[in-house]
Amino acid sequence: MVLDLNHQAFREPKYYQVKRHLLHLIDTLAPGSLVPTERILTVELATSRTTVRQALSELVGEGRLVRRQGSGTYVAEPKIAWPLHMTSFTEQSAAAGYSASTQLLDAVRERASDDIAARLAIKPAAAVYCIERLRLVDGTPMAVETSYLSAVRFPGLIGHVRKTSSLYRVLADVYDTAPVNAEETIETAAASPREAELLNTDTGSPMLVLGRHSFDAGGEPVEWVHSWYRGDRYVFVAKLSSGR
Amino acid sequence: MVLDLNHQAFREPKYYQVKRHLLHLIDTLAPGSLVPTERILTVELATSRTTVRQALSELVGEGRLVRRQGSGTYVAEPKIAWPLHMTSFTEQSAAAGYSASTQLLDAVRERASDDIAARLAIKPAAAVYCIERLRLVDGTPMAVETSYLSAVRFPGLIGHVRKTSSLYRVLADVYDTAPVNAEETIETAAASPREAELLNTDTGSPMLVLGRHSFDAGGEPVEWVHSWYRGDRYVFVAKLSSGR
DNA sequence: GTATCAGAGTTGTCTAGTCCATTTGCATCG
DNA sequence: CGATGCAAATGGACTAGACAACTCTGATAC
C-alpha cells in the first residue's frame, strides 16, 4: 500500500537548488574551509544575492556553515552532544569531561506572572526570584538559563547564589531541598537579540529551548527553568529504556 | 558578581522591532484571528515588505502565526505536546488519547552507507531495508519517519510491514525481537521540499529531528530511525527522575 | 622591527519593485 | 437558485542595488 504522493517533481524553490549545490560542496571540504563568497556564488549560479543568502542562512542555522562578517563563510565544526540528565549542570559537565563555568547575569525579586505562579503552585503575583545565568563549557557560552523559584520558600536565595555558583548545591545545603523529579520540554525558537548577543550568534537563528519543571521528593514544585541553546551547535541526547 | 554584559542598548535589527510589535498584537488576539496584511504592515510601520516578511517568517517558524496564501496571516493554535517514551508509536498515541495512523511512503532494500552500517553494526554496503512512513494523528500528518534495519537479520521484513502497520509488532511476532533500550537525539533542522510537502508546511521551516538508535535485550542494534516533526507544531516532553 | 593607517573585500541590513500562485468574493450566466 | 468565471487581494519567490559594519592585508611611517 505504498502511497504515490507526489511522484511528480516537487516545486523546488531556486534557493533550494543553491542549498543542495552547497551541501555537495561542503561534503568535499574539511571543517574550517572557506566556501566561495556570496557574490561569486551569485555569478556562478546565475541568481541574486538574496537567494544565495537564503540558502546560506539555512545552512548556518543547521550548523553546517559559519559566517564571519568581513571575513567569509566557512564549513562548521560538528555539533556537540549534550546529555539530558536529572543532575546539576556542574556535575553533568564534569561527567562529560568538560570544564564548565557559570556567569550570573541577573538575579532579581519580582512578582510572578500567572504562568509562573501556576507552575510553582503559589498565588498569582506572589514574590519569586528570577535568576538568569550564562552557562559556559571550556570558556565558550553554551546556554542562557533563566530560573524561577518561590521567594517565600527560599528566603535570601539571591545572596547565597551570588556566593555559590551551583544553585542545586545551595538548595541542598541551605534549604535542605533536592529536586528529584522533573518534566522537561524541548522545542525550537528563534534567538532574540539579547540571547544572540550572549551566545555569540545571530538574532533569529534557530535555538533549542529546554524547559525544566522540577519537583522535590514530596511532589512540590521547586523550580521552573528555561535554557536556550544554540540549535546549530548542540544535539540533545537521552537514554531510554522500556524497563519502567 | 553580576556581569554588566551589554548594559548598552543592543543593536536591534529593524525587523525585530516589527516582530515585537506583532508579538504584542498576537497577545491581544485569539487563535485563528486575522492579523494585518503584509502590505498594510509595510505602511503602518514605515518599512519594506521584505523586512515585514522576515518578522512574520520567524513568528511562523515559532508557531505563533500561520500564513495562508491568497487568504491572510492568522494567529496560530498552541503547540502539541508529544511525550518521548520507549514504546511504539501506535501504543504511545493511544495512551495520549489520539487516534493515530500510518502511511507507508516507501520501503526499499538498499546498500548501507558507512554511517548506517556503523550504527547497525553490520558490514559497510551490506543490505538494509529503508522504510519511510508518514505518521498521522487525528488525520493530520505529524512526522516523516525513516527507519533502517538489517536485511540479513530481518529477511522479508518489507512484505510483513506492508501488511501490518506497526513495525514493532512485526519485530515481536515474526522475528521475536523487541527493542528495550534506545539512545535518542534531538536537534533542529530546516524542512526540505519533500518533508515540507508531506507535512503540509513550507520548505525551510524549522523542524525538530528525533533520532532513535534502539537495541534489543542482548545489546544488539535493532534499528536506526530519524523522525522529522514540525517545530512550529510540536513540543517534546520527557519525564526524568534522579532515582537511577 | 614595529606600529599605524588606508583601502579593498567581505558579510549584514534594508529598500523598492516585479511577477507568480492561490484564495476569495462578487458578478454574471444558465 | 445554482454554477461558473472573472477580478481583486493576498502571500510566495525573486531581482537589483544601496549603504553600513567588519576583517584582513599591505604599504607606510616611525
Q: Strand count, sense and closure of the main sheet of chain A? A: 6 strands, antiparallel
Strand content of chain A: 35-45%
What's the β-strand tally of chain A?
11
Strand order of the largest sheet of chain A: 5-6-7-10-9-8
Overall pLDDT level of chain A: 88
Q: What overall form of chain A do the CA principal axes indicate?
A: elongated
Helix-and-strand structural type of chain A: alpha+beta
As a percent range, the share of helical residues of chain A equals 25-40%
For the structure shown, list the relevant keywords.
six-stranded antiparallel beta sheet; 35% strand; DNA-binding; disordered N terminus; 244 residues; homodimer; alpha+beta
Describe the structure.
Two copies of one chain form a homodimer. Chain A is of the alpha+beta class. Chain A is built from eight helices and eleven strands. Chain A has a six-stranded antiparallel β-sheet. Chains A and B meet through helix 3, strand 5, strand 8, helix 8 and strand 9 of A and helix 3, strand 5, strand 8, helix 8 and strand 9 of B. Strand 8 (181-190) of chain A pairs antiparallel with strand 11 of chain B, so a sheet runs across the interface.
